[in-house]
Amino acid sequence: MHPEITLDQQYALKTAATRLERDFAGTFSVETIERFLSSSYDQFAGRAKITTFLPLLAERFARQRLNALARVEGKHLGGKPTVLFLCVHNAGRSQMALGFFEHYAGDDAVAWSGGSEPGDRVNGEAIAVMTERGIDISNEYPKPWTDEIVRAADVVITMGCGDACPIFPGKRYEEWVLDDPAGLAATDIRPIRDEIERRVLALLAELSVAPRFDRARP
């Protein structure tokens, strides 16, 4: 699939393809699944400084993209409200928004995130201030968006990506004007975090999704 990668990575990609083929059997062909996995790998391989986890990232991103495509084609996701959070690096604002959304919505809605210029890792200070709310975003990773992901979203929330944000006619867009936490200390990020939380809760109310306050912040 990718002759420049190690044998271990090739094996990991083949194993990932097997898992995806099992999980999407009857929904997508083997060819489609392998194409999405390969292109997902390429999205990260060109900018990764550490390549150890590339097959895992590729599998996770391919799974998200295939779920999005299935929704676009009306194959599953059960009509749950779906929101896409976009910023520049997908390392701070959009990751915090995703964390709050998943925390409060649980299984009642779907959320994704992406960036116009994905960074190398999620902002460590953003991870720290979210941990203060009892929300762990340390396993998230910066990623781009793709057409099927944008098309699958009911609402696209943009945060500073400007003209780089994708526009599809007839889709609901909302711009959240928020400071970029990149380079800021935790003290300065907390007000941004709290404003994101407020906006996420308001968005859930608009989507008629009752927030799960039994999982609310400590």
Provide a quick synopsis of the model:
This is Arsenate reductase ArsC. By secondary structure, the chain is of the alpha/beta class.
Structure description:
By secondary structure, the chain is of the alpha/beta class. It folds into 2 domains: 1-78, Helicase, Ruva Protein, domain 3 (Orthogonal Bundle), CATH 1.10.8; 79-218, 3-Layer(aba) Sandwich (Rossmann fold). 46% of the residues lie in helices and 10% in strands. The protein has helices spanning 7-23, 30-45, 54-72, 93-105, 124-131, 147-152, 186-206, and strands at residues 82-87, 110-115, 155-159, 172-175. It has a 4-stranded parallel β-sheet with strand order 2-1-3-4. α1 (7-23) packs across α2 and α4 (93-105) crosses α7. The longest helix is centred in the last third of the chain and has 21 residues, at 186-206. The radius of gyration is 17 Å and the shape is globular. The chain starts with 6 loop residues before the first helix and ends in a 12-residue tail after the last helix. The mean pLDDT is 91. This is Arsenate reductase ArsC. Keywords: Arsenical resistance. It holds the Pfam family Phosphatase-like_N. Residues 81-206 form the Phosphotyrosine protein phosphatase I domain.
